[in-house]
């Protein structure tokens, strides 16, 4: 008896008996039918199959596509924020955050929370801003991102300051300063000290605040942060103005103004001009105050900033009112009211109308 391979076209065993051949053909047909049936019957997944499906890594191409979509949304949100549409920016950032959550990208989630905090701050939604920033801070702690911890703590402290919780803000700034010192982050030291000085000044401890600001300035200069330096100088100028040291006030605001103009930092430029206007008018230097207001208004108009135009007209009105020139003051108040209506700031409009009413009979 000679052995052959399975499915070679011959029977499994070659035998001489005809009956056996017939049986063998029957067996072969049965075997083929069995193969056909098994091949076309839906399979049932075992427990091992299901487990493997659950633990199989996500498709990398799918993750990359989702990540790209989320990154694009972050970019869109940044452009919307820059164009003055924080509500739209928040919507874009929130959508990106949901995608980052779905793909488990922790670092990207922290970034999205940081942007959301900025957006809510712009809208003065301090509760939502604090929630977003605290989530960003928690991720920074989990990932040992010390720089994000420093900035997160400073942001939380700043929110507390805006809410009037000056004493509550101090621990956040001190913790940020400690971390900055531990990792020798010069920029973080300057920022934390500047904010700590601000909280200290708000609590009325002016001499201590001056010392803290002077310390902050040294780090601002070391880190070559002109915007931060101008901001700290403006803060220091505010303290000198409060305690009535006009010589130091004018010198400090003047230094801030020069830095701001050199770096085209419009926010600090306008702020330092406001401080100088107050300082010069306080010592009777009205012409210098008017010259500065003229510069302020020109900057606001150049950049088509209606809010700052309104602030300039209000400052003119207040200065003329201080000089007893009530007709001129009323004209400037009316111009400010017109802009308040244009930008739909009803609260400011009512405030200006109230002031206008008070001087109408003078």
The first-level CATH class of the domain at 64-144 is given as: Mainly Alpha
Helical segment tally? 17
Q: Average pLDDT, to the nearest integer?
A: 86
Q: Topology as H/E string?
A: HHHHHHHHHHHHHHHHH
Number of strands: 0
**How does the helix and strand content classify structurally?**
mainly alpha
Sketch the major β-sheet: none
Round the Cα radius of gyration to an integer and report it: 36 Å
CATH topology of the domain at 64-144: Serine Threonine Protein Phosphatase 5, Tetratricopeptide repeat
Can you identify the CATH superfamily of the domain at 64-144?
Tetratricopeptide repeat domain
The percent range for strand residues is under 5%
Low-confidence stretches: 1-58
Name given to the CATH architecture of the domain at 64-144: Alpha Horseshoe
Specify the overall morphology. globular
Helix content: over 70%
The end-to-end distance, rounded to whole angstroms, is 132 Å
What report would you give on this structure?
The chain has 362 residues and is mainly α. Among the domains are: 1-39, no CATH class; 64-144, Tetratricopeptide repeat domain (Serine Threonine Protein Phosphatase 5, Tetratricopeptide repeat), CATH 1.25.40.10; 305-362, no CATH class. The protein is 80% helix and 0% strand. The protein has 17 helices and no strands.
Q: What is the element layout, followed by pairings?
A:
Layout (H helix, E strand, L loop, with lengths): L17 H22 L7 H9 L4 H23 L3 H18 L2 H17 L3 H17 L3 H17 L3 H17 L3 H17 L3 H17 L3 H18 L2 H18 L2 H17 L3 H17 L3 H17 L3 H17 L3 H13 L4
């Amino acid at each position: 008896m000679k052995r052959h391979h399975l499915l070679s076209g011959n029977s499994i065993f070659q035998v001489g008996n005809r009956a056996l051949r017939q049986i063998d053909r029957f067996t072969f047909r049965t075997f083929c039918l069995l193969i056909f049936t098994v091949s076309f019957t839906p399979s049932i997944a075992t427990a091992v199959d299901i487990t493997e499906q659950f633990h199989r890594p996500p498709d990398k191409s799918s993750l990359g596509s989702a990540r790209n979509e989320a990154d694009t949304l972050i970019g869109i949100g940044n452009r919307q924020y820059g164009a003055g549409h924080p509500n739209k920016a928040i919507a874009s950032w929130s959508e990106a955050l949901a995608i980052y959550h779905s793909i488990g990208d922790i670092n990207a989630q922290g970034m999205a929370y940081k942007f959301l905090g900025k957006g809510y701050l712009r809208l003065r939604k301090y509760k939502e801003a604090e929630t977003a920033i605290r989530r960003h801070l928690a991720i920074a702690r989990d990932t040992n991102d010390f720089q994000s911890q420093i900035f997160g703590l400073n942001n939380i402290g700043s929110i507390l300051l805006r809410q009037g919780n000056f004493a509550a803000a101090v621990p956040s700034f001190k913790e940020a300063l400690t971390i900055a010192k531990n990792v020798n982050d010069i920029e973080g030291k300057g920022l934390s000290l500047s904010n700590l000085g601000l909280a200290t000044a708000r609590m009325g401890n002016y001499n201590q605040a001056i010392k803290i600001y002077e310390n902050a300035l040294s780090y601002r200069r070391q880190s070559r942060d002109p915007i931060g330096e101008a901001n700290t100088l403006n803060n220091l100028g505010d303290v000198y103005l409060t305690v009535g040291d006009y010589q130091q006030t004018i010198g400090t605001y003047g230094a801030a103004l020069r830095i701001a103009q050199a770096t085209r930092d419009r926010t600090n430029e306008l702020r330092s001009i406001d401080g100088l206007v107050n300082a010069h008018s306080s010592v009777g230097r009205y012409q210098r105050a008017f010259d500065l207001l003229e510069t302020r208004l020109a900057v606001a108009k150049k950049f088509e900033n209606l809010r700052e135009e309104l602030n300039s007209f209000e400052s003119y009105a207040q200065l003329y009112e201080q000089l007893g020139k009530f007709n001129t003051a009323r004209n400037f108040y009316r111009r400010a009211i017109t802009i308040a209506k244009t930008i739909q700031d009803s609260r400011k409009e009512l405030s200006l109308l109230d002031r206008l009413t008070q001087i109408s009979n003078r």
